[in-house]
Amino acid sequence: MFRLLKGFGVTFNYFRKKKITIQYPDERVVMPERFRGIHRFFPDKCIVCNLCVTACPTDVITLTGKKSEENPKKKIIDTYNIDFQGCILCDFCTEVCPTDAIVMTARYNNLSSFNRSEQFKDIEWLSDNHVYGYYEESDRVPEMGERGEQK
Amino acid sequence: MAIKTETMTLNMGPQHPSTHGVFRLVVDVDGETIKRVEPVMGYLHRGSEKLAERFVYTQFIPYTDRLDYMNAMTNNYVYCAAVEKLLEWEIPERAEYLRVITMELNRIASHLVWWGTYLLDIGALSPFLYAFRDRDHCLDLLNEISGARMTFNYMRIGGVKWDSPDGWIDRVKEKVKVLRENINEYDTLVTGNEIFQSRTIGVGKLTKEQILDWGISGPLARASGLKMDIRKDEPYSIYDRFDFDIPTQEEGDVYARYKVRIAELYESLKIIEQACEQIPEGDIITKKGKRIMMIKPPAGEAYTRAEASKGEIGVYAISNGKNKPYRIKLRRPSFVNVAILQELLIGKNIQDLVAIFGSLDIVLGEVDA
Question: What is the pTM of this model?
Answer without folding.
Answer: 0.89
